[in-house]
Design brief:
four-stranded mixed beta sheet, about 35% strand, 12 strands, about 10% helix, three-stranded antiparallel beta sheet
Length: about 180
C-alpha cells in the first residue's frame, strides 16, 4: 500500500508541475503612475497631469503643497501663479491599495523682451531723391476704369536691441519734403 501511495504522490506532483508550466501566465499589471514626475512651466501657463494605468472610474484627489506658486484643479490641471517650486500630489485608491503620487513643478518667470526703437546710427541727411520706380506691364482694361498705382515710400533701416543684443532690423518710413 505504501508503494502505491508513493507512486500516486509522484504522479500528482509530476502532473501539477506539467500543468503549472504549460498554463499561460498573465502579464504583470503595470502600476499606477503620474504622466510626469517633473515639469517646468512659465507663469500664467497651465499643464494637465494624468494618472496612468488606472480605471476611469477611480477617484483621484489632487493637491498643491504650495498654492502661491501653483494651483491644481479637481481634474489635474496645474496653473502656474508665480516663480518657484510646488509639489503636486495625486491621492487615490486602486484595487484595494492606497496610492500617493507626486510631481515636482518648477514655475519660471515670463521672459520679458525689451525692444528699444532708438536707432544706433541716425543718418544726418534725408535722401534727396525719390527711389526710381520701374514701369511694369499693365493688363488691358476697359476705358474709364480707375487704375491703382503702387506708391513706394523711402524707409530707414536700423537694428533693434533686445536685452542688449542686436537681433532684428526695423524700419521707419521717411517723410520726403
Amino acid at each position: 500500500m505504501q508503494k502505491n501511495g508513493k507512486k500516486l504522490l509522484a504522479w500528482m506532483l509530476a502532473a501539477s508541475m506539467v500543468f503549472s508550466f504549460s498554463m499561460p501566465t498573465q502579464a504583470a499589471k503595470k502600476k499606477p503612475a503620474l504622466s510626469k514626475k517633473k515639469a517646468v512651466i512659465t507663469v500664467g501657463k497651465t499643464l494637465t497631469l494624468k494618472v496612468k494605468n488606472i480605471s476611469k472610474k477611480t477617484k483621484v484627489t489632487w493637491k498643491s503643497k504650495n498654492k502661491k506658486i501653483a494651483t491644481v484643479s479637481k481634474k489635474g490641471k496645474v496653473k502656474a501663479k508665480k516663480a518657484g517650486t510646488a509639489k503636486i500630489t495625486a491621492s487615490f485608491r486602486y484595487q484595494g491599495k492606497k496610492y500617493v503620487k507626486t510631481c515636482k513643478v518648477t514655475v519660471r518667470k515670463k521672459k520679458t523682451v525689451v525692444v528699444t526703437n532708438a536707432p544706433t546710427k541716425v543718418p544726418t541727411k534725408a535722401p534727396t531723391q525719390k527711389p526710381a520706380v520701374t514701369p511694369t506691364a499693365t493688363p488691358t482694361q476697359k476705358p474709364g476704369t480707375p487704375t491703382a498705382t503702387p506708391t513706394q515710400k523711402p524707409v530707414l533701416w536700423f537694428p533693434l536691441l533686445v536685452d542688449g543684443t542686436k537681433i532684428l532690423l526695423g524700419r521707419l518710413p521717411l517723410q520726403v519734403a
